[in-house]
Amino acid sequence: MDVVVSNASPDPIYLQIKDQLKVAIINGQLAPGEKLPSIRRLASQLRVSVITTKRAYDELEREGFIDSMQGRGSFVASKSTELLQEENRKQIEELLKKVLELAPAAGLNLEELKELVGLLGGTDE
């Protein structure tokens, strides 16, 4: 799993790191129990401050995505798949709320939104 940070991004670097690791955990790219790079090693690879990387790891731990053990390192938490799926569902619901707010201004009704979802999702429904 490669983490890429950009100074051109509007998001702070710690948030870029956190979000990319979180997505990798949710998508199963990083498995429960898998060891993450040390804070120092990741900071060195990304050429960022150790403090920045530590902040990303601290937030992931606070949110329950990783477990850190002093002297052993940080590991992907043994969260159940259901909890990870619930996190995805919450994100989808928030995005759909925004879509439903914007649709009338774009002149789209519910049927047209369904059709658009079908086209974007590659289905014919």
Highlighted features:
mainly alpha; 2 strands; elongated
Beta-strand content estimate? 5-15%
Order of helices and strands: HHHEEHH
In terms of structural class, how would the helical and strand content be classed? mainly alpha
Q: Note poorly predicted spans.
A: none
**What's the pLDDT, averaged over the residues?**
90
Largest pleated sheet:
2 strands, antiparallel
Q: N- to C-terminal separation? A: 34 Å
Molecular structure report:
The chain is mostly helical. Helix content is 55%, strand content 6%. It is built from 5 helices and 2 strands, in the order αααββαα. It has a two-stranded antiparallel ribbon with strand order 1-2. Helix 1 crosses helix 3 and helix 2 (39-46) packs across helix 3 (50-62). The radius of gyration is 18 Å and the shape is elongated. The mean pLDDT is 90.
Brief summary of the model shown:
α1 crosses α3 and α2 (39-46) crosses α3. The chain has 125 residues and is mainly alpha-helical.
Give the secondary structure arrangement, pairings included.
Elements: H1 13-26, H2 39-46, H3 50-62, E1 66-69, E2 73-76, H4 81-102, H5 110-121
Antiparallel strand pairs: 1-2
Helix pairs in contact: 1-3, 2-3
